[in-house]
Specification:
Blueprint: E1 2-9, H1 15-29, E2 36-43, E3 48-54, E4 72-80, E5 99-100, E6 104-112, H2 115-121, H3 135-142, H4 147-154, E7 159-167, E8 173-178, E9 184-188, E10 193-197, E11 212-215, E12 220-225, E13 230-234, E14 243-247, H5 252-263, E15 267-274, H6 280-294, E16 298-302, H7 305-309, H8 341-349
Length: 350
């Protein structure tokens, strides 16, 4: 787990204030990464400088002060929590994010599952065996610097990611990309700068401040430039078919959800679980009739899992279900709940 952060300076004369704001963000962001830290600055001429170190960023703030100047345009930063699968005992600068290529500087949160495949396919050389280190040489080789090109490149990547990317050839912009990893953007009108990080709480913005905080859309790429243009593209192509799997109990809620989706043009399949509960026969009969009426395919799964767990009156062979509520709040009593039932259903469906 890491925290990715960055900044785009619209008015470089305010570099000192931007630097302090970035230090505050990185200090809060170390709760997602205390093993190493790195900050890389790209100047208006494309030159790069940075600091990297082992341990908590909060203990090394002084190393960042003075890193920015009036030529600074883009900042890319990272707080890293090192997973045991990629532990590097004797680290050097090339093992610490952000990673640099000949053109791109990349901060990555997530896991690149096919780093070895990308390395072989494109005949790449990376500076570290850490999976994220494959990204700069990969992007150097396949990405032309356009937002459309970034979508094409990232479609080759397997795994999870939130990315903050600087282009040394065009330091008047910054690129963001994410699938399901979080990424937030804030514009500060006083500092005339965009900031980016993994959680909105790192910005520490109160409701009465004029700063704009936005959660970036999952499975999207963004290009933000110094003219305040924010361009977004979907990372995934628009599906030709809209398909939905509805976990159906035979009751009102799931039936309404399935009907609504069908009316909106979705292809709906119903998924029903028989888990040896007392209403099993009635629910099974109901869901079959619903599937027939909606002309929707029905998948039924039978499981003994909850009977093995037991201790709930809703299952066959257990106690009586309380039907007299006598004015007590709640539709069910806690002792009647089936432990983690819906969680199991969702997991199987996914």
């Amino acid at each position: 787990m890491c925290s990715v952060s960055g900044a785009l300076l619209l008015n470089p004369k305010k570099y000192k204030e931007v630097e302090e704001r970035l230090i505050e963000i990185l200090t809060r962001a170390e709760d997602r990464g205390r093993d190493s830290y790195g900050v890389v600055v790209v100047d208006e001429d494309g030159s790069v400088r940075g600091v990297r170190g082992i341990g908590r960023f909060s203990e090394h703030k002084s190393e960042v002060r003075g890193l920015l100047n009036e030529r600074s345009r883009v900042v890319v930063a990272n707080n890293r929590a090192e997973p045991t699968t990629e532990y590097v005992r004797f680290k050097n600068q090339t093992d610490i994010q952000p990673f640099e290529g000949s053109r791109y500087v990349v901060s990555h949160n997530g896991v690149i599952a096919n780093d070895a495949e990308l390395e072989r396919k494109h005949e790449l050389t990376r500076a570290s065996r850490i999976d994220s280190a494959i990204l700069p040489p990969f992007l150097d080789k396949v990405w032309d610097g356009s937002l459309e090109g970034l979508v094409m490149a990232l479609n080759e990547v397997r795994g999870s990611f939130a990315l903050v990317i600087a282009d040394k050839r065009r330091p008047d912009r910054i690129f963001l990309a994410q699938n399901f990893k979080p990424l937030y953007m804030m514009y500060d009108p006083e500092l005339e700068a965009f900031f980016f990080t993994s959680l909105d709480s790192y910005f520490q913005v109160s409701p009465n401040e004029p700063k704009n905080v936005t959660k970036l859309e999952p499975y999207s790429v963004y290009e933000v430039d110094v003219n305040k243009n924010v361009t977004k593209l979907e990372l995934l192509p628009n599906p030709k078919r809209k398909r939905a799997l509805v976990i159906a109990s035979g009751g009102l809620d799931s039936t309404v959800a399935a009907t609504k989706l069908l009316r909106e043009g979705w292809e709906v399949t119903l998924l029903h679980f028989n888990y040896h509960h007392k209403a099993e026969e009635r629910e099974r009969e109901a869901v079959r009739k619903i599937a027939e009426y909606l002309n929707a395919p029905l998948i039924e799964i039978s499981t003994d899992l909850f009977r093995m767990i037991g201790h709930t009156n809703l299952l066959k062979g257990e106690g009586e279900v309380s039907k007299e509520r006598k004015g007590e709040a709640g539709a069910e009593f806690a002792h009647e709940w089936v432990p983690a039932r819906n969680l199991v259903f969702y997991s199987v469906a996914i």
